[in-house]
């Protein structure tokens, strides 16, 4: 089999030219998938309310699939987006797409050629592929506009591109704030001159560390408290003194006192307290800071009973502001190359655009990055050391390469070498207008490790380690018939936390998250590689140790504890990850061990609790227990229990069979002696007084819901995950053994390794 994918009744299959991408057409559904090794990876699904007629892949591309319904030509992208290309007067059947022409047949088998406009989906494909050259070209040549395209760009995380379609200043401001474009936001805020806009601009500028714009925003909103605090942290004592005088002119007592605190002006604080008739506080401030003149002036004014309490405490520290490390400079920013959408797009006519595209040298060859002197966008943000490009994004055919100075432009990279020349010889030679403020996002990061794990694997445990619980549950349901995920919550949590590590950096820095790989010795990281495998805590060695602790609890008779251990181990198999055929075989063996011991414990606890007063059922369950596949020591315990129970109801024939099986296990001397004595009695009395629903000669399995044997040849249904047997009447219920699988729901087979073939396994 090439692979499997869930898809409703498929009518047509359409392969792309690369023979890796495929589209499945159903009556009302289009499913796109990609073939990878031995599996089919689902890419996108589109549901239609009317019938799907035909479809073809975009010419020379595997990103877009074009299909028809009864009255529309539509597209579907592999990322999941879809839309309408054009309407149809009558149904057609697609044959091929070439350029903007669509070749098709009508119902009378006549060939038709339809013109289509592929701008929308080509724009979306280029945008999602971050092919900004193509995006820019489409923006210039097309008439894409409206709230729909703006909303789409915002939804997909491209507010900087949405800026190119907006003329409304309010919308431009909000988009600029969203993408962190301070220059555009400042221009829009200046045009709007709205207090709320200035406040938002101040918040964003403060987040970027541009305190010059923060200062402007606070001045516009008259937010004096924040403005004073800004001057404090930037060490601008001169403007703090001005804020003190402004607060005095405004009659703002608390503002005066705060500014005096920020400045460390003790005399001003004493004066303020004295003016407000807070004589005791003024006296205490003067005494604490050693201002003798003020102490001598205020002491006669203090009541005698308050003087003892106005003494400074031993070890009291003076209230002076800390010295700021950075003074008046914006935070340092990462210098990166100019982005495609970090400035406005010049509106050009179609004829001018054609001239630019047909010329010898176009803007696509880097003409925008020359940064020639005099081309800057104003001097509003002087002092910033970030280069900007030319005014036109398509290349300016009229650029004057000789500016009269005889020096080369910035496009040659000479000024960017930043050579450490003696005597101040490394001057840039730029005019002041060439440097304007610009703050650019860092280069795009690679795909996160968790997302790569999820994309490269069909192993449920690796999806859990990636934090994608929903896809992990879907895989478990499809592969192992799991329907009850409540018991899996602690296992999911432990697996996810075990695959992540967190490192604290310097104070104030974000916590660094690091993905843990189990193949770190032979795995070389790259930005978009899929070879990394997550470190999963559910492995064969860990399950082996847990099963050993279950053996110990079973031997000591701690059945509830043993049941909890074996159940947890069995459920952990769902998230276990192995890397070899040998480990996979061991994992399947451990799964069978857990199932047998859980069945045995359920039989024993049910016998003790529910059938304690029913000797017949008590003996039957003790007999069923002896047919579980247990370790020899544990089987010996079950045989001794069944032997003694049978003797009590005088079923000597049955007891004799248990004695013989017990002696075959070579028990201890005292157990052997006891079994021989019982066997001697049973040989003398070959009879059973009570008829049991038990035939040891006929192979059987036990249903753990009805607690009756299911003999060979009888109808049987099994759990989709652990293969525990049940009577068919319990089909559709949750398994009593693993507590997660559905009885009778057959899956495609649990995958615990990336190298494991996804076979359809039979549990019967």
Task: Give a written overview of the molecule.
With 764 residues, the protein is an alpha+beta fold. It has 26 helices and 17 strands. A hairpin with an 8-residue loop joins strand 12 and strand 13. Helix 9 runs parallel beside helix 11 (253-263). It is flat and about 120 Å long. Residues 343-437 and 757-764 have low confidence and may be disordered.
Number of strands: 17
Percent helix, as a range, is 25-40%
Q: What is the alpha-carbon Rg in Å?
A: 40 Å
Proportion in β-strands: 5-15%
Side by side, the strands of the main sheet go: 1-2-3-4
Q: How far is the first residue's CA from the last residue's CA?
A: 22 Å
Low-confidence stretches are 343-437, 757-764
Q: Please, how many helices? A: 26
Rounded average pLDDT = 77
Largest sheet: 4 strands, antiparallel
Give the overall form: flat
Task: Briefly note the structural class of the backbone.
Answer: alpha+beta
Summed up, what is this model?
The protein is α+β, with helices and mostly antiparallel strands and 764 residues long.
Architecture blueprint of SSEs:
Elements: E1 10-15, E2 21-26, E3 29-36, E4 39-47, E5 52-57, E6 64-69, E7 72-77, E8 82-87, E9 93-98, E10 101-105, E11 111-115, H1 119-128, H2 132-141, H3 147-155, H4 159-162, H5 169-179, H6 182-192, H7 195-208, H8 211-221, H9 224-234, H10 237-250, H11 253-263, H12 266-275, H13 279-289, H14 292-298, H15 350-358, H16 449-456, H17 460-465, H18 469-480, H19 489-498, E12 500-503, E13 512-515, H20 540-555, H21 559-572, H22 581-609, H23 615-625, H24 632-648, H25 652-663, H26 669-684, E14 700-702, E15 709-711, E16 717-718, E17 725-726
Antiparallel strand pairs: 1-2, 2-3, 3-4, 5-6, 6-7, 7-8, 9-10, 10-11, 12-13, 14-15, 16-17
Helix pairs in contact: 1-2, 5-6, 6-7, 7-8, 8-9, 9-10, 9-11, 10-11, 11-12, 12-13, 13-14, 20-21, 20-22, 21-22, 22-23, 23-24, 24-25, 25-26
């Amino acid at each position: 089999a090439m692979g499997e994918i869930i898809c409703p009744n498929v009518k047509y299959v359409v392969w792309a030219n690369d023979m890796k991408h495929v589209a499945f057409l159903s009556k009302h559904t289009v499913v796109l998938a990609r073939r990878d090794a031995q599996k089919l990876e689902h890419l996108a699904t589109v549901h239609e309310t009317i019938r799907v007629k035909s479809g073809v892949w975009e010419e020379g591309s595997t990103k877009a699939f074009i299909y028809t319904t009864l009255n529309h030509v539509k597209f579907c992208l592999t990322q999941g987006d879809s839309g309408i290309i054009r309407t149809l007067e009558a149904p057609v059947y697609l044959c091929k797409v070439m350029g903007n022409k669509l070749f098709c047949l009508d119902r009378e088998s006549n060939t038709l050629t339809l013109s289509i406009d592929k701008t929308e989906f080509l724009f979306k494909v280029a945008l999602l592929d971050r092919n900004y050259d193509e995006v820019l070209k489409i923006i210039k040549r097309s008439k894409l506009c409206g709230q729909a395209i703006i909303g789409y760009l915002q939804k997909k995380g491209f507010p900087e591109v949405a800026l190119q379609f907006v003329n409304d200043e309010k919308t431009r401001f909000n988009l600029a704030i969203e993408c962190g474009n301070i220059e555009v936001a400042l221009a829009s805020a200046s045009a709007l001159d709205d207090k709320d806009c200035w406040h938002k601009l101040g918040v964003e500028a403060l987040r970027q560390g541009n305190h010059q714009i923060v200062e402007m925003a606070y001045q516009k909103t008259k937010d004096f408290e924040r403005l004073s605090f800004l001057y404090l942290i930037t060490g601008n004592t001169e403007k703090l003194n001005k804020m003190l005088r402004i607060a005095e002119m405004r009659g703002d007592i608390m503002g005066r006192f705060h500014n005096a605190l920020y400045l460390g002006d003790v005399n001003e604080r004493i004066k303020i307290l004295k003016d407000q008739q807070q004589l005791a506080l003024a006296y205490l401030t003067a005494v604490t800071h050693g201002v003798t003149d003020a102490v001598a002036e205020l002491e006669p004014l203090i009541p005698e009973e308050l003087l003892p309490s106005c003494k400074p405490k031993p070890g009291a520290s003076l209230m002076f502001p800390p010295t700021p490390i950075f003074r008046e400079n914006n935070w340092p920013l990462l210098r990166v190359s100019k982005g495609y959408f970090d400035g406005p797009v010049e509106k050009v006519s179609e004829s001018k655009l054609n001239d630019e595209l047909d010329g010898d040298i176009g803007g696509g060859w880097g003409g925008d990055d020359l940064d020639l002197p005099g081309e800057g966008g104003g001097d509003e943000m002087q002092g910033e050391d970030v280069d900007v490009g030319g005014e036109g994004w398509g290349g300016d055919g009229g650029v004057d390469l000789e500016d009269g100075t005889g020096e080369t432009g910035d496009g040659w990279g000479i000024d960017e070498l930043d050579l450490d020349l003696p005597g101040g010889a490394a001057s840039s030679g730029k005019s002041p207008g060439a440097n304007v403020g610009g703050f650019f996002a860092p280069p795009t990061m690679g795909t996160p490790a968790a997302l790569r794990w999820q994309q490269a694997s069909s192993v449920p445990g690796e999806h859990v380690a990636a934090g994608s619980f929903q896809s992990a549950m879907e895989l478990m349901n499809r592969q192992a018939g799991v329907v009850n995920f409540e018991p899996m919550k602690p296992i999911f949590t432990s697996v996810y936390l075990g695959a992540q590590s967190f490192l604290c950096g310097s104070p104030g820095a974000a916590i660094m998250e690091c993905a843990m790989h189990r193949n770190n010795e032979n795995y070389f990281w790259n930005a978009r590689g899929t070879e990394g495998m997550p470190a999963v805590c559910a492995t064969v060695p860990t399950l082996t140790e847990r099963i050993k602790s279950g053996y110990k609890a079973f031997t000591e008779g701690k059945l509830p504890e043993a049941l909890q251990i074996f159940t947890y181990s069995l459920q952990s198999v769902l998230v276990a990850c192995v890397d070899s055929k040998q480990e996979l075989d061991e994992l399947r063996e451990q799964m069978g061990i857990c199932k047998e011991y859980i069945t045995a414990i359920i039989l024993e606890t049910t016998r003790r609790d529910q059938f304690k007063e029913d000797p017949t059922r008590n003996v039957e369950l003790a007999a069923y227990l002896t047919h579980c596949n247990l370790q020899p020591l544990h089987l010996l315990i079950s045989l001794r229990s069944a032997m003694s129970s049978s003797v009590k109801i005088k079923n000597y024939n049955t007891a004799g069979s248990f004695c013989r099986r017990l002696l075959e296990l070579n028990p201890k001397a005292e157990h052997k002696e006891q079994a021989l004595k019982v066997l001697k009695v049973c040989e003398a009395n070959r009879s059973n007084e009570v008829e049991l629903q038990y035939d040891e000669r006929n192979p059987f399995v036990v249903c753990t819901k009805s607690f009756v044997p299911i003999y060979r040849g009888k109808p049987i249904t099994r759990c989709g995950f652990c293969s525990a047997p049940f009577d068919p009447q319990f089909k559709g219920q949750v398994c009593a053994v693993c507590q997660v699988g559905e009885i009778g729901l057959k899956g495609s087979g649990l995958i615990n390794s990336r190298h494991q073939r996804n076979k359809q396994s039979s549990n019967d």
